[in-house]
């Protein structure tokens, strides 16, 4: 046994300094980790459990007892902290798939941090660490002569505390063959299933509402190029009018290319020709080709003597209706809680 100038039983000063360095690093690391862990996983009692672990190490550090035993205890405490950090990371990952500030994210986070099984695990860990901290407190309160005469007991006490931390760690991580990771995963999956069902119901309700709005729009049902009233305009003979279609398709491509580059294209193409030269047939065939390429927004064909098709009275509302049907972007995603402006809301 070596003795300091004041007679206290200790290992050599170099070894003692190493132990103090290890304990200092452990305490500082735990204090930083506590904020990270509790921010990601604010489970009731977890913050207190971490405080107790930090307090235990500080009390051990104050005793300046057996250096190797103190280092070993600090290492064991760090292993427990690593498990808690991994738990916090897993919890954060589970709700992190949802956008920040979203209701879904809040539900998953709240559901995980209020899970009874997790709370019970944390409460048991807190209780065990509380008892260990009490033992460390007794050790730190021993007087100089007590430590001088019974120095071996300090080592035994430290070893016993380390053993109890190891056992508490194991019970927290795995109890009844169920790991804490499994609890988090199962709880999260259950919550996400409920959220998914709720989203389906909301999407169905929103779709039903949109359908009612769409159905209320005044429109000419037979204006579309595929309508029965326009069958006579769909008698295009393949291989004819190629020069005209080359010009039309060149104009079509320019609309998309220029838009992608941030330039505004020429928005209107006017097909000019004498009566009976096939303008309607060309327009019908061009509409068909556009639809095949997924580029047709709407079509309106006037017809003499047919109600709603012989005047421009319902042109705009019909185009609005068809656009709302063909362009999902104008309606917003079905699962979006607050979709953007939708054309079908503003054309009645």
In short:
With 348 residues, the chain is mostly helical.
Protein described:
This protein is an all-alpha fold and 348 residues long. The chain folds into 2 domains: 2-198, no CATH class; 216-345, no CATH class. It has 11 helices and 4 strands. The chain has helices spanning 13-40, 46-63, 67-96, 103-113, 116-140, 144-149, 151-173, 180-215, 242-260, 279-292, 315-326, and strands at residues 2-3, 9-10, 174-175, 178-179. The strands form 2 sheets. Strands 1-2 form a two-stranded antiparallel sheet. A two-stranded antiparallel ribbon has the order 3-4. A hairpin with a 5-residue loop joins β1 (2-3) and β2. α2 (46-63) runs parallel beside α5 (116-140), α3 (67-96) packs parallel to α7 and α5 runs antiparallel to α7 (151-173). It is rod-shaped. The model is unreliable at 1-12 and 338-348 (pLDDT under 50). Keywords: Coiled coil, Repeat. This is Nephrocystin 3-like N-terminal domain-containing protein. Residues 70-142 form a coiled coil. Residues 252-331 form the Nephrocystin 3-like N-terminal domain.
Query: What is the mean pLDDT?
Result: 83
Tell me the overall shape: rod-shaped
Low-confidence stretches: 1-12, 338-348
Structural class: mainly alpha
Q: Compute the gyration radius: what is it?
A: 37 Å
The largest sheet is: 2 strands, antiparallel
* Number of strand elements: 4
Roughly what percent helix? 55-70%
Query: Order of strands across the widest beta sheet?
Result: 1-2
Q: How many distinct helices?
A: 11
Tell me the number of structural domains.
Answer: 2
Topology as H/E string?
EEHHHHHHHEEHHHH
Question: Which band does the percent of strand residues land in?
Answer: under 5%
Distance between the termini: 95 Å
Pfam family, one: NPHP3_N
Coiled coil: 70-142
Protein name: Nephrocystin 3-like N-terminal domain-containing protein
Organism: Polyporus arcularius HHB13444
């Amino acid at each position: 046994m070596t003795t300091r100038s004041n007679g206290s039983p200790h290992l050599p000063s170099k070894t003692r300094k190493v132990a103090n360095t290890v304990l200092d690093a452990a305490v500082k690391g735990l204090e930083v980790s506590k904020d990270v862990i509790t921010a990601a996983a604010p489970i009731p009692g977890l913050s207190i459990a971490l405080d107790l672990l930090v307090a235990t190490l500080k009390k051990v550090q104050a005793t300046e007892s057996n250096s190797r035993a103190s280092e070993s205890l600090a290492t064991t405490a760090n292993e427990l902290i690593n498990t808690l950090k991994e738990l916090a990371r897993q919890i954060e990952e589970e709700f992190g798939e949802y956008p920040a500030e979203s209701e879904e994210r809040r539900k998953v986070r709240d559901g995980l941090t209020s899970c009874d099984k997790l709370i019970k695990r944390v409460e048991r860990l807190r209780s065990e660490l509380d008892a260990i901290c009490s033992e460390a407190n007794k050790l730190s309160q021993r007087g100089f002569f007590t430590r001088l005469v019974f120095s071996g007991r300090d080592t035994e006490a430290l070893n016993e505390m380390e053993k109890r931390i190891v056992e508490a760690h194991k019970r927290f991580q795995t109890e009844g063959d169920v790991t804490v990771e499994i609890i988090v995963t199962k709880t999260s999956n259950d919550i996400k299933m409920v959220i998914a069902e709720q989203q389906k119901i909301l999407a169905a309700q929103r779709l039903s509402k949109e359908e009612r709005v769409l159905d209320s729009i005044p429109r000419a049902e037979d204006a579309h190029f595929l309508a029965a009233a326009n069958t006579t305009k769909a008698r295009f003979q393949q291989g004819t009018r190629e020069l005209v279609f080359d010009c039309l398709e060149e104009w079509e491509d320019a609309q998309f290319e220029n838009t992608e580059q941030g330039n505004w294209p020429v928005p209107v193409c006017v097909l000019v020709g004498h009566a009976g030269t096939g303008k309607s047939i060309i327009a019908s065939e061009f509409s068909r080709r556009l639809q095949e390429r997924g580029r047709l927004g709407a079509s309106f064909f006037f017809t003499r003597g047919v109600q709603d098709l012989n005047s421009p009275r319902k042109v705009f509302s019909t185009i609005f209706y068809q656009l709302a049907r063909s362009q999902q972007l104008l309606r917003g995603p079905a699962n979006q809680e607050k979709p953007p402006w939708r054309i079908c809301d503003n054309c009645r």
